[in-house]
């Protein structure tokens, strides 16, 4: 009898020790799904776009206040529904009959949300097909995409003159921006430095250096042929050392802070979105 009890306890102990495999299995499955999605995005068509919106809709509902003025009515099925994605005309969210018209578990996305999804998809596919390797930050709340390049990709230390070897990178970047002009509102080139002081006749402080670098990138993108960028959507800013993304206490942290950010702002103006008529691929 004593031996049997030991066996029962041993089995229970072994079962408890294997519980971590459940979490591990879930994690591996999520990673697999993530890479399958990246592969699927390499060729964008209407069906894949529809599937992507379905999968993102639930997450967006948790992130944003869905009472944003005048959204597009986008119905994404809940796990218990088999209804297809439906995108109707732009409607007024203050309409008393709107809620009753939506199926249970429906998700409402704004027109700006849908356009931003298209923009993020296009840029992601373009970057994957290029040799560019910036850090990419996607802010779906503020409809913003940031492409972060280390300063040494474009400039020598203490200089705002674009290096010859940076021309290929800038030309590829220009094409990506130009191909998506209808999907964004503005592009802002931001220069950033570390906190190591600079003192020269040309650049008395890091303010001047970061601003000069941002302007150098901006002018190259706009002024060099082909002239394909809308100047009304372009701007630049220099922030010196005052917008760090890492510590300035280590060489590695300072290297990350010395960067050029390409900030792409999504379209929020509903009138502009209505004029475009590019919310979904045909």
Which key features would you list for this structure?
282 residues; alpha+beta; 60s Ribosomal Protein L30, Chain: A; 5-stranded mixed beta sheet; 7 strands; globular
Characterization of this structure:
- The strands form two sheets. The protein has a five-stranded mixed sheet with strand order 3-4-7-5-6. Strands 1-2 form a two-stranded antiparallel ribbon.
- The chain folds into three domains: 2-40; 46-110, no CATH class; 144-266, 60s Ribosomal Protein L30, Chain: A, CATH 3.30.1330.
- The protein starts with a helix and ends in a 6-residue tail after the last helix.
- Helix 6 (167-179) packs across helix 7.
- The chain has helices at residues 2-17, 20-40, 46-63, 98-101, 111-128, 167-179, 206-223, 251-257, 270-276, and strands at residues 72-75, 86-90, 135-139, 144-150, 184-192, 234-238, 259-266.
- It has 282 residues and is of the alpha+beta class.
- Residues 57-96 have low confidence and may be disordered.
Strand share of the residues?
Answer: 15-25%
Discrete helix count:
9
Strand order across the biggest sheet? 3-4-7-5-6
Q: In total, how many domains does the architecture comprise? A: 3
Topology readout:
Layout (H helix, E strand, L loop, with lengths): L1 H16 L2 H21 L5 H18 L8 E4 L10 E5 L7 H4 L9 H18 L6 E5 L4 E7 L16 H13 L4 E9 L13 H18 L10 E5 L12 H7 L1 E8 L3 H7 L6
Parallel strand pairs: 5-6
Antiparallel strand pairs: 1-2, 3-4, 4-7, 5-7
Helix pairs in contact: 6-7
């Amino acid at each position: 009898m004593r031996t049997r009890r030991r066996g029962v306890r041993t089995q229970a102990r072994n079962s408890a020790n294997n519980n971590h495999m459940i979490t591990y299995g879930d994690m591996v499955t999520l990673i697999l799904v993530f890479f399958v999605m990246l592969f699927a995005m390499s060729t964008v068509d209407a069906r894949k776009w529809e599937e992507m919106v379905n999968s993102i809709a639930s997450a967006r509902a948790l992130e944003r206040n869905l009472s944003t003025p005048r959204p597009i009515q986008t119905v994404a099925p809940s796990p218990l529904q088999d209804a297809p994605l439906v995108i109707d005309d732009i409607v007024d969210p203050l309409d008393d009959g709107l809620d009753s018209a939506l199926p249970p578990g429906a998700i409402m996305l704004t027109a700006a949300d849908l356009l931003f999804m298209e923009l993020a998809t296009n840029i992601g596919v373009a970057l994957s097909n290029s040799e560019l390797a910036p850090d990419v930050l996607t802010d779906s709340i503020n409809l913003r995409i940031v492409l972060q390049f280390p300063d040494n990709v474009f400039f020598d230390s203490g200089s705002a003159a674009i290096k010859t070897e940076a021309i290929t990178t800038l030309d590829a970047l220009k094409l990506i921006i130009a191909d998506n002009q209808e999907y964004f509102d503005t592009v802002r080139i931001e220069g950033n430095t570390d906190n190591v002081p600079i003192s020269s006749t040309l650049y008395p402080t890091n303010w001047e250096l970061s601003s000069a670098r941002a302007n150098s990138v901006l002018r190259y993108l706009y002024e060099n042929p082909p002239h394909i960028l809308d100047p009304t959507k372009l701007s630049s800013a220099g922030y010196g050392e005052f917008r760090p993304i890492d510590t300035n206490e280590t060489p590695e942290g300072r290297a990350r802070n010395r960067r050029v950010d390409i900030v792409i702002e999504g379209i929020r103006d509903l009138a502009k979105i209505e004029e475009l008529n590019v919310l979904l691929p045909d």
